[in-house]
Amino acid sequence: MNLFIKQKIFTLRDRYNIFNEAGQPVYVVEGKLISLGAQITLYDTMGNALYIIRQRLLKLLPQYSIYSGDNLCAVIKKQLTFLKHKLEIESAVGNYTLDGDIFGWNFTILKNGNRIGTIQKVLDFGDSYQLWFDDREDPAFLSAMVIAIDHCIHNSNNNN
To answer: How far is Cα 149 from Cα 141, in angstroms, rounded to an integer?
Structure first.
């Protein structure tokens, strides 16, 4: 399955859509305008909040948490590496490892040691990604992971 995450460059706050292979919006992403650390919510197209991504402050390396309501679903931790990006994700549905290239544009997604997908940056006007993943995976959860990863790698000095 494929999803396309298309962010706009010039926005006051993060607000963009995630599209399916047919180009139809399936999720809406909105960042909180004023917050201590990044706080981003993933909604379905009916406006129901599915996941909330929060930046964990005062960490040596960037860390983000993903919540469903008040329930902690995952913790994303950037690893200290040389000439590549690596993130570890501990979640209720398994442990993920994301191995990326030197620029943080392309990642392989491993779940419990097995490859389940890839993330590829798309050259576009903004931060856009193509997410490919196994059909057995939760697309909303993986989309929330990609949003957190983008912030972890590319916005680590930015609160939103």
So the answer is: 12
32-61 pLDDT, tens digit each: 766 667 789 999 999 999 999 999 887 777
DSSP string, 73-118: EEEEEE---SSSEEEEEEETTEEEEEEE-TTS-EEEEEETTEEEEE
Residues 6+ apart with CB under 8 A from 135: 1
- Is residue 7 within 8 Å of 126, Cβ to Cβ? yes
Which string of b and e fits 11-40 if b means at least 16 CB within 10 Å? eeebebbbbeeeeeebbbbebbeeeeebbb
Which CATH topology does 2-154 take? Answer: Porin (2.40.160)
